[in-house]
């Protein structure tokens, strides 16, 4: 082991996505020290908003989650105002295209306002990540460090951390918040003592939202489909994209995006170049020749992200559903809390679920710390 820390962190947070950042914010507001350990060289996890070159940007195209629904997720809407963030409606004005069969032209239907209305964030969903991270203390985030083993060590928890240079480190913490999907937690981190088999099975059988999916974005000089009276929304039984939407940013950078409707193995076999060509061919079928020459294209396959997906995610899976019962049991119950969106009791898998699960995990930690002798 290359390094070891004797300092005991009050709380170690594994994962710097939305859930980890929100948990950190709540702990910071309560005056509790923490450090976030994020495996990637960026924050956000499954949230990634980039420019046309694929670089994280302040007004980016969302390659991960884009939407929330204020009527369904009121807590999410309330959280935006203190952070200075603005919600914008998903563009849905204009007609909708439906592609049912190969070698048949798409059908055009009059569009209608979607209810509940899908909302996006000005600046992309990454704006939420930046806002949360900006309010945290300097030095409280450690990138390119991922937990490989978590061990009960007397009154503390020892985390063994892998690093990009091939080395490792070790830190002690009084409490741990695992702010990553339960399935990824089960597959990537060893626990000593071992997690109860029933709990491990529950973690593994909980689908990770976005992990089986891939998104394609085509960036254009202008939103030409709007001029043609189209909303940019399309449904297809032909593919490769099954669902397409307008992805134009709040600043007016024009784009269309779609979810690929083919599985991970076929995506991997096809490769980026072939998939890109097939997606552009489909956009031409739907929206005409102007779709043939984008300014740039982006393809994000979340199944290929080792810090998001496991082998189980290659088989796809339904959206996670709220589950009853504890996520942690036995000796770990006083030291470990799960905060991944999939553990939310109300909105698992959604952005709102990450906020909810983080709030619950932070509350659990604060309660333990408040009891004398339990997390000293």
UniProtKB/TrEMBL annotation:
SUPFAM superfamilies associated with the record: FAD-linked reductases, C-terminal domain, FAD/NAD(P)-binding domain
Superkingdom of origin: Bacteria
Ranges where the Amine oxidase domain occurs: 114-366
Pfam families: Amino_oxidase, NAD_binding_8
PANTHER family reported for this sequence: AMINE OXIDASE, AMINE OXIDASE [FLAVIN-CONTAINING] B
Family statement: Belongs to the flavin monoamine oxidase family.
Protein name: FAD-dependent oxidoreductase
Source organism per UniProt: Sediminicoccus rosea
